[in-house]
Structure formats: C-alpha cells, structure tokens
Amino acid sequence: MPSDINRRFHLAVRPTNLPGDAHFRIETAPIPKPDTGEVLVRVLIAALSPWQGQRLKDFENYTAPFEIGELIDCDVLGQVVESKTGERQPGDLVTGRLGWQEYAIAKPENLLPATRDFDETLWLTALSSPGLTAYCAMEMFGRPMPGQTLVVTSAAGSVGSYAVQLGKLAGMKVVGIAGGPEKCAVVTGQLGADACLDHRVPDLASRLRETCPEGVHLFFDTVGGWIGDAVFEGLAKFAKVLIVGRTISNNSERPDLDPVNMRMLWAREASIQCFSRYSYPENWARAREHMMTLCRDGKIKAIDNLIDGFERTPSALHDMLAGKYTGKVMVRYAEAQ
Ligand SMILES: NC(=O)c1ccc[n+]([C@@H]2O[C@H](COP(=O)([O-])OP(=O)(O)OC[C@H]3O[C@@H](n4cnc5c(N)ncnc54)[C@H](OP(=O)(O)O)[C@@H]3O)[C@@H](O)[C@H]2O)c1
Questions:
Q1: Is 235 helix (H, G, I), strand (E, B) or coil?
Q2: 208-231 burial by CB neighbour count: b if 16+ within 10 A, else e?
C-alpha cells in the first residue's frame, strides 16, 4: 500500500573511493502535487550507472559533480499517477531522468513513452543509455569492419555488453575483457564474443597479444586506467581507440593520472576518438528504433540485475562499482499498477 510520503536519496558526504550507505541521507516529504503542464510520476525502477559514482566526487569530466545535499540523479522507468497535461495520462509508462526518489514531478517534454510490448527493464537497458551509447558510438565513430578485431573493456557491463554484440553483428572478431571467469563465460557464451580475457589474471597485455596476433583494430574502452594501458600494447597499426568511459580512473583517488601508456598509441599511429552520447541527441530516436528492431528479432540480449527495495540503492551502487554484477544494475521501487 503506497504511503503519502515521498522518500529521496541526497548526497551527504563525498566518498574518496567507492560510495556506500554512509554517503547518502534519505529525506522525506509529502508526495508533491503537479501544477498545470506537469505530471506526477511514481518511480518503478531506478537504473544505476558508474557516472553516478563519478558525480559523487569533486572533479569534473563530461558531467559536473553533485552538490552536497543534491538529489541523486538517474534514469528511471515510472508510471504516471496524476496528470495536469493532455500529453500523458495516469497509467502511462514513461522513462526520464528523475533520480533516486519514489515520486517525481516532471514535464512531459522530459519524458519518453515506454510501451508494454517490451520487458520493463529493456526501457532502461538496450533501449536507453547503455544500448544507445554503444549503438551511436559504434555507428558514428567505430565504423566496424568485418574481419577486423574489436576489443571491448567491461565487456559484461552495461554499455560493453552491447558493444560486444554490435561488433559481432557487424562481422568483427570480438575479444572482451571482464573481471572473473563467470563474467568471461557470459561474454563468450551469451554475448557471442570470440574470446574473453579475465583482467584479474596477470599479464593481460601478453595474453591479449596471443589472442590477437593480428593486432587490435578497434578498441571500445569504457574503463581506461591500467586496463586501457594494457590494451594499447596490442594495438594494430593505425588502430582506432574509442573512449566511451573511464570507470577505473573515475573510481580512483587520482583520476588525473590516466592514461599512462601514450608510447604505444604513438608507436602504432593510433587515433583516439572520445565519445559522449549527450553530444548527439539528434541520433537517439533512430538508434532506439534500430535497437528495438534488433531486440524484436532476438539479435540483442540484455543482461541485467533487478534488486528489490528503495533502501538498497546505495549498497547496490557500491556493489556495481565493485564489479559484483554482470550487466546492468537496477533497483525496483514499486510495481506497475
Ligand atoms: N560516453 C557516454 O555517452 C557514456 C554513456 C554511458 C556510460 N558511459 C561511461 O561508460 C562506462 C561504463 O558504463 P556502464 O553503465 O556500462 O557500466 P559498467 O561497465 O556496467 O560498470 C560496472 C563494471 O565496471 C567494471 N569496473 C569497475 N571498476 C573497475 C576497475 N577498477 N577495474 C576494472 N573494471 C572495473 C566492472 O566490470 P568487471 O568486473 O568486468 O571489471 C563493473 O562490473 C562508465 O564509465 C560510464 O560513465 C559513457
């Protein structure tokens, strides 16, 4: 039975390394009322992402830090409870960036409709930021070539899992890098990669050279740090490095020390393309359409984890950043009515 209280997670203290319960505080207030032109949305599922971890710290990259006391932002799937606009009706499922709260006021232009012909979670995975990021980055800048070799870091992760599958669909040899044998088994067994290297086993750079004697033509990197530096050792001549994220450095105490291994980029005359999907909003609708078709045709799999309970959001973020989960991590706040 829903209460008339809204709970919201706010940043209390900045973490130095990984965040946890102690860094957040719950604020309570009556469920807000929409004004004319607004809707009240009940949050059903909140999506967790490493960028939330990086925004807890006081450094800037492609997103600005959260202020102390600020509501923690994230993409959610929600259901309209009350509408003061003709554009959305009570009962409609929507997605939007509404944050770690049980209810939110939103304007219709900031929400996207979600239909019931896909699983609820797909609206936060393949058809949302992770799928669209991988699709746009690969299509616009990766330009995958059949027969060439693609390496993907955090290959069992949210964005990485789609990069692996899109590379395979384009006819590439795909080698994933992931933490642990279980994740590697998912990357080869479920996502279809040709090989997957466990970064917890020593000598990543030499194992990569053995797996890819032809050299790495395209490197889709979401973690950077020492793993990115190790992959640089195996680049082919004129390789392309597509930088999509820096999870390792963002989670470290010294995000400014990244990357280290510029020598091999120079030696292989590689080019670096940095990518943020936020620079290309005009491409999202088309990317979503393509991802919908791939999902309907059974060509793309979403690997995800749904954790139950609003209170567990901070610990789920901690566990995700610590590498405990395979695929996208989401927290269920309520069931759709
Ligand atoms: N450019 C854009 O438009 C855009 C959009 C979305 C996301 N991103 C960025 O892309 C990155 C990935 O996002 P995501 O949502 O797909 O997350 P994700 O890869 O699912 O993130 C969690 C995974 O990161 C890996 N990881 C975390 N710390 C690590 C460490 N110290 N060493 C090695 N691996 C570590 C772990 O996988 P293993 O256990 O396999 O190591 C963990 O399971 C993030 O940095 C995010 O900010 C960019």
A1: strand
A2: beebbeebbbbbbbbbbbbbbbbb
CATH number of the 129-278 domain: 3.40.50.720
CA 337 to CA 330: how far, in whole Å? Answer: 19
Return d(Cα 119, Cα 125) in angstroms, integer.
10
pLDDT digits (tens, 9 = 90+) for 187-224: 999 999 999 999 999 999 999 999 999 999 999 999 99
In whole numbers, what is the pLDDT of the chain averaged over residues? Answer: 95
Is pLDDT larger for residue 247 or for residue 62?
247
Best residue among 223, 249, 251 to mutate for probing ligand 1's pocket (most ligand atoms within 8 Å of CB) is: 223
Sequence letter at residue 202: P
Report d(CA 326, CA 337) in Å as an integer: 29
**Domain limits, the chain:** 5-125+302-332, 129-278
pLDDT of residue 1: 47
Which atom of ligand 1 is closest in space to residue 178's alpha carbon? Answer: 40
Instruction: List phi, psi (to 5°) of 112.
Output: -115, 145
Cα(23) to ligand 1 centroid in Å equals 21
Expressed in angstroms and rounded, the spacing between residue 207 Cα and the centre of ligand 1 is 22
5-125+302-332, superfamily in CATH? Medium-chain alcohol dehydrogenases, catalytic domain (3.90.180.10)
Token couple for 39: 């809707």
Closest C-alpha to ligand 1, atom 1: 276
